[in-house]
Amino acid sequence: MLFQADELLGLDVNGADGEEIGKIEDLIFDDREWQVRYLVVDMGGLLSERHTLISPESARQLDFDSSALDVALTRQQVEESPEIDLDEPLTQQRLIELHSHYGWREAPIYGAVAPPGAGSQTTANATATPAVGWYGIPVFGDWGPMKGSEEAKAEQIRRERAPDNPEEIALHGMDEILGYRIRATDKLIGAVGDWLIDDDWFIRYLIVDTRRWLPSKDVLVPVAAISDIDPFNSDVHVEMNSETIRESPEFDPEADEPLNREWEERVFAHYGLTEYWREQ
Predict the structure, then answer these.
(1) Which CA distances in Å does 212 have to 222, 238, 273?
(2) Comparing 3-17, 90-104, 191-205, which segment has the lowest mean pLDDT?
């Protein structure tokens, strides 16, 4: 089943103990595997404000009819987890702590680029532990809150686990990227309207809103066609020309019929790409 990312926002997150943990506020995904890595959950009430990250690894049942996501965590477990400050960068060390606390699989190693206004430093000359900014802009070095021994420990873990030639991976918040411009190979063609996600929490399609550039129409672009997400210029680069995107089958998010495999085959055939289910 495919569902829109927007459908998840505002859903109740219920714990294994029957207690409500909070509501989904955003989704964080990586730009290499195109997988939702974390749900940003607002745990705050009227008198307090607190956010936490929950990996889809802990998801048990997603029920849109009851507007709820059941997870295999208790509220107490979540309350005792490392705190997440949305005003601070999310460091690799904090991700390691989160995964250790919940017993999740090892946290992926994420790349880094400099934050806005920080000059031309990149991962090629960065030696400090990467951190991920809220949202979408990974940072490193003194921009992250880690200092001293904590930073050294995380850097040692990163070096031990990183491949010989690691590809740079960045984390992005879906809410932040909504409205980013879509840059085809020849010109602007639309804006990010939403994303389509499958049952395994992989993003399969970008929904392109072309209303400002073309007659009112939403189209899908498989994420395999995306070459880059540029948070500095608020652009998503697609390796297709504007005519190809414009002529792709129209997507109606309000249609009663769910997106089926036959329709997906039409989309992939149009773009000349290998279907993701044949690559698995």
Answers:
(1) 21, 18, 27
(2) 90-104
Length of the chain, in residues:
280
CATH number of 1-176: 2.30.30.240
Nearest C-alpha neighbor of 135 from the set 181, 88, 81? 88
Alpha helices in 103-246 (DSSP H): 148-161, 174-177, 242-246
The beta strand positions in the chain, using DSSP E, are 2-4, 12-14, 20-30, 36-42, 51-54, 59-63, 68-71, 90-91, 130-132, 138-140, 171-173, 181-183, 188-198, 203-209, 218-222, 226-230, 235-238
Distance CA 276, CA 268 (A): 9
H-type alpha helices, 109-177 = 148-161, 174-177
Q: Regarding the domain delimited by 178-279, which CATH topology (the fold level of the hierarchy) does it fall under?
A: Photosynthetic Reaction Center; Chain H, domain 2 (3.90.50)
pTM here is 0.80
Domain spans in the chain, listed from the N-terminal domain onward? 1-176, 178-279
pLDDT in tens, 163-207: 444 445 678 889 889 999 999 999 999 999 999 999 999 999 999
